């Protein structure tokens, strides 16, 4: 075993990995260095051919090294699960002698914290967890130890010991307030650290002057105008561009210029000459073209080129390629992609002004406002609807507040344009302005939303099936298919009222309901299967609840003008509607999902129900779902193994009589099993103090369609008592006393390789009120190794009599590989004046199942015990 480990350790770092290097933004010297490092350390390098501009044999590559995501094969690489990493990933791997997490080195612009390595000083635990979670989610890294790799040290003052250590060691890291991370996550971008940096953070200075201006964002350079045709001839490529380093933008490429560009003969000739000089060719045949250039997102050629996944951009993008001779994704910059001819829906009629933006930033926003369909006004007046500003320290902002004009940051405009849908101002991201920060520094970082553009402008539409074909699929008469649900335009949007009408207006001759279409994004809900009895029963139950609304709707439909354009509504009906809305979810007649959790009710507005004859309406009140009487968790009951349809049907029946079967062990009334087992669900659920019943309880309920008294089906397992010396009839009253707080204020460490899995024991500990941390032999900060304060003033204390308060526990495995981790764990405990106790998993299982803290020497682990084991 040890020889095998040594063999693995001796393998080169990049063994069995295949790389290619994208030359953009990399000097030739840097490229050669990366190539040498890869080959020397066992990797295989596929040379990137700049004349082709694409990665050959892409499927053979495992890692693509690129400083940005701006190369043609980027999205294809993600689809093939190929790692795209920055060059610094290679350096980091070689430094530690093993492969680092590629995600932390991704050039993906969405992972805006991927260059950040944080270390937290003495800040509150809640802040530490929130910062760590946010940084990890956005591509950054978190470390406990203060090392040279740390880029940001989070502290509340320079008196923090880690700040002093960073100063003494002259570490090149920024010392910032936690507020910086809050504001970065709030706006979804990495903003400047300047106002948050020590020794004198600006945000703490109430007398600070005006917010300084910022440099032009590099994301909008040469990308401020979507229609540069009126600005004269395209720029000539600079002489210093080195073809050997750049991706040849036009080499062996054919370009089609769209008719909507309306180019003059002279300008078209110049553009054609420049493309030809770059090795390309201008064609009039779209089928043979690789690139299509146009102004607007419409027309047959645009749709055809987009669906064929050709490169589609506008004239501004074409000029960028000519200038830099480097390929760039036209969707990366707003003004490089064809604009919607009619702008963003809802923007017509808006009058928008801007504040605190200058130079190229101002030109960019002006053109983006116009491209969105709104009116840009240089002068800010009371008639304006929106003010876009980089910060709120301006006279325009003060006037906007007095006049009631919407004050937003530029991300509202960018996101609306990117998705071609007006974004709601209730999202605080668009109305938030970090203190002492000029948001102009993050201008242009939003990319065109690929999926939104495809869905709205060039989705591959499918012809709707005839009513008869749909009916045959479900064994239904053709008349049973609601015609309102079939549409020839998949992108058409209707009002909520119209959608409600579509759901409720159905025919009367349906025997079996249609399967519910999943439109709410939920995937775990059991489907209603056509033809199953349980599905019919549940559909009919929902139908009965909807019967009064259906009757009212049909009555309104008979009126002249229908529901929307009929005469005045009956005042009594309006009062009744208001009464129903005021009751909300507490209404006695509210609908409940069969998969109900924690008593929360779900509306069934998206369900498509087939209507039963009106004579059933009289029974509607009787068919309302029974309130939940018991929440039951089952463990090791195999009655539904490999039979999900029967499981769904039986659970539906049980719910109808008041028994909700759940997998959530945090809220359980009944715990059902054929015998006492030590599974994660069973042990965790004991903290709730449930009544433990045998499988015969469920057998009786399914057979008789009613719930028996749980006391008549209590689980008895003498073999378990003899084997483990745990009496559950005593443990349950203790669990009720503990109220899930048996391990409150405990921090228990658990080995990563523990038998049964770290997550299993973490769930058991958390279910009993404690905290669990994975132990890998690294140092832990002071707060997680502090002594417990034992409170003897409550009922829980009698179940914690044997808790010494100064013992630190590590759950581990009896293996020699754990010896180094044990030694470091003892050092941690000694450092914090605590007693280290390394234990088997049996200790936690006995404590959790017996529901009181106790100790037996046989549970302890040490080197002597392991060495004497056979």
From TrEMBL:
One of its GO terms (cellular component) is nucleus. PROSITE patterns: BRCT. GO terms for biological process: DNA double-strand break attachment to nuclear envelope; double-strand break repair. Residues 596-611 have a biased composition (Acidic residues). Residues 534-559, 567-595 have a biased composition (Basic and acidic residues). Coiled coil: none annotated. Residues 9-107, 107-198, 347-419 form the BRCT domain. It holds the Pfam family BRCT. Residues 474-623 are annotated as: Disordered. Gene3D superfamilies: BRCT domain. It comes from the Eukaryota. SMART domains: BRCT. This is BRCT domain-containing protein.
């Amino acid at each position: 075993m040890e020889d095998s480990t040594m063999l693995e350790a001796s393998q080169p770092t990049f063994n069995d990995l295949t790389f290619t290097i994208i030359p953009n933004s990399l000097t030739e010297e840097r490229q050669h260095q990366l190539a040498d490092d890869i080959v020397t350390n066992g990797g295989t390098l596929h040379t990137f051919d700049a004349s082709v501009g694409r990665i050959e044999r892409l499927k053979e590559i495992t890692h693509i090294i690129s400083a940005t995501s701006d190369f043609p094969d980027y999205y294809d690489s993600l689809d093939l699960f190929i790692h795209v990493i920055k060059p610094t990933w290679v350096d980091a791997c070689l430094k530690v002698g093993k492969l680092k997490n590629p995600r932390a080195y991704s050039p993906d612009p969405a992972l805006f914290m991927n260059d950040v390595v944080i270390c937290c000083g003495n800040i509150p635990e809640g802040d530490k967890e929130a910062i760590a979670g946010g940084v990890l989610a956005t591509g950054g890294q978190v470390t406990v130890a203060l090392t040279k790799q740390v880029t940001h040290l989070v502290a509340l003052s320079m008196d923090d010991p880690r700040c002093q250590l960073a100063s003494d060691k002259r570490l090149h890291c920024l010392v910032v307030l936690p507020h910086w991370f809050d504001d970065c996550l709030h706006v979804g971008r990495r903003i400047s650290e300047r106002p948050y940096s020590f020794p004198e953070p600006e945000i703490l200075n109430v007398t600070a002057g005006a917010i300084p201006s910022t440099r032009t964002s590099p994301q909008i350079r040469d990308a401020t105008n979507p229609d540069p045709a009126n600005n004269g001839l395209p720029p000539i490529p600079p002489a210093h561009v080195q073809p050997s380093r750049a991706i040849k933008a036009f080499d062996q490429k054919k370009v089609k210029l769209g008719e909507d560009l309306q180019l003059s003969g002279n300008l078209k000739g110049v553009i054609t000459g420049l493309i030809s000089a770059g090795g390309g060719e201008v064609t009039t045949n779209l089928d043979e073209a690789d690139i299509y250039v146009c102004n607007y997102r419409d027309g047959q050629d645009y749709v055809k080129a987009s669906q064929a996944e050709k490169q589609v951009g506008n004239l501004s993008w074409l000029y960028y390629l000519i200038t830099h001779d480097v390929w760039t994704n036209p969707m990366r910059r707003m003004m490089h992609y064809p604009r919607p001819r009619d702008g963003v829906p809802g923007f017509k009629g808006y009058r928008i002004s801007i504040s605190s933006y200058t130079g190229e930033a101002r030109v960019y926003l002006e053109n983006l406002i116009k491209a969105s369909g709104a009116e840009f006004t240089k002068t800010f007046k009371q008639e304006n609807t929106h003010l876009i500003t980089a910060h709120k320290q301006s006279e325009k902002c003060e006037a906007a507040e007095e006049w009631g004009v919407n004050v937003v940051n530029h991300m509202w405009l960018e996101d609306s344009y990117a998705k071609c849908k007006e974004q709601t101002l209730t999202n605080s991201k668009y109305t938030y302005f970090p203190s002492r920060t000029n948001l102009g520094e993050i201008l242009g970082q939003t990319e065109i939303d690929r999926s939104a553009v495809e869905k709205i402008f060039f989705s591959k539409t499918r012809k709707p099936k005839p009513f008869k074909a749909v009916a045959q699929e479900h064994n239904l008469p053709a008349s049973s298919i609601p015609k309102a649900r079939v549409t020839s335009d998949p992108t058409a949007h209707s009002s909520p009222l119209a959608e409600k009408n579509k759901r409720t207006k159905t025919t009367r001759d349906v025997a079996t309901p249609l399967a519910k279409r999943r439109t709410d994004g939920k995937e775990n809900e059991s489907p209603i299967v056509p033809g199953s009895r349980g599905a019919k029963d549940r559909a009919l139950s929902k139908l009965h609840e909807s019967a009064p609304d259906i009757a009212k709707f049909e009555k309104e439909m008979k009126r002249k003008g229908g529901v929307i354009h009929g005469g005045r509504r009956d005042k009594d009906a309006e009062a009744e509607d208001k009464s129903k809305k005021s009751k909300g979810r507490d209404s006695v007649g509210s609908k409940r999902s069969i998969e109900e959790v924690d008593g929360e009710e779900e509306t069934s507005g998206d369900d498509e129900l087939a209507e039963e004859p009106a004579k059933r309406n009289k029974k509607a009140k009787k068919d309302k779902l029974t309130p939940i009487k018991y929440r039951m968790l089952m463990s090791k009951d195999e009655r539904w193994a490999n039979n999900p349809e029967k499981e769904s049907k039986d659970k539906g029946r049980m719910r109808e009589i008041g028994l909700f079967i759940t997998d959530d062990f945090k809220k359980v009334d009944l715990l059902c099993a054929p015998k006492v087992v030590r599974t994660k669900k069973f042990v965790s659920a004991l903290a709730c103090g449930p009544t433990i019943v045998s499988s015969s309880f469920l057998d009786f309920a399914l057979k008789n369609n009613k719930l028996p008294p749980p006391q008549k089906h209590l689980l008895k397992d003498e073999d378990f008592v003899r084997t483990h010396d745990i009496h559950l009839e005593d443990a349950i009253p203790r669990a009720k006393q503990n109220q899930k707080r048996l391990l409150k204020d405990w921090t228990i460490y658990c080995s990563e390789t523990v038998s049964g899995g770290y997550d299993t024991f973490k769930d058991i500990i958390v279910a009993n009120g404690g905290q669990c941390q994975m132990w890998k032999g690294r140092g832990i900060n002071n707060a997680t190794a502090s002594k417990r304060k034992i409170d003897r003033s409550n009922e829980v204390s009698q179940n914690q009599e044997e808790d010494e308060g100064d013992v630190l526990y590590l759950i581990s495995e009896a293996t020699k590989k754990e010896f180094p981790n044990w030694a470091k764990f003892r050092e941690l405990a000694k450092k914090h004046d605590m007693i280290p106790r390394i234990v088997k998993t049996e200790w936690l299982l006995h404590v959790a199942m017996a529901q009181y803290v106790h100790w037996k020497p046989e549970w302890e682990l040490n080197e002597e015990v392991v060495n004497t084991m056979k």
